[in-house]
Amino acid sequence: MNWELIATGFYLGRFRYAPGTVGTLLGVPLAYLFGFKWWLVLLVGVFLYFLGVKSAEYMMELTREEDPEGVVIDEIVGYFFAFLFLEPTLKALLLAFVLFRLLDILKPFPINLFERMPKGHGVMADDVVAGLLTGFILYLII
After folding, report:
1. What is the DSSP letter of 72?
2. Of 24, 27, 66, 127, which is most buried, counting CB atoms within 10 Å of its CB?
3. Where is the secretion signal located (predicted)?
4. CA distance linking residue 109 with residue 94, whole number of Å
5. What does the DSSP 8-state code read for residue 39?
6. b/e per residue, 39-53, with b = 16+ CB within 10 A?
């Protein structure tokens, strides 16, 4: 399996400027395809989470970095998890994108606590929590 391809979101993580934001774009079609059923988001999301952990750990070993810059599978999966709470309407897709990126960049409490998890879980979990928080906030306001 090509772990680098997965970790970098089909190499979107290699984008020179704002690779996390560019990588998150890959989550948009995923949310649209699977987001109409919460159980599909959960099933696909959990599968992608563990795929992300494995690919992130591969990249961590390859680069010798704790959170390699080109890894964007965490952004893709985190954004996707927002749709446990939301239907993937155009409005929700756009608002979730903006709010998720804001939360992912700022990493407010409790999101920042999840970065401390070991290995690939530390790369993935904070973004999943940011995605879940995004979905919950937007569920309350739209």
Report:
1. -
2. 127
3. none
4. 23
5. H
6. eebeebbeebbebbb
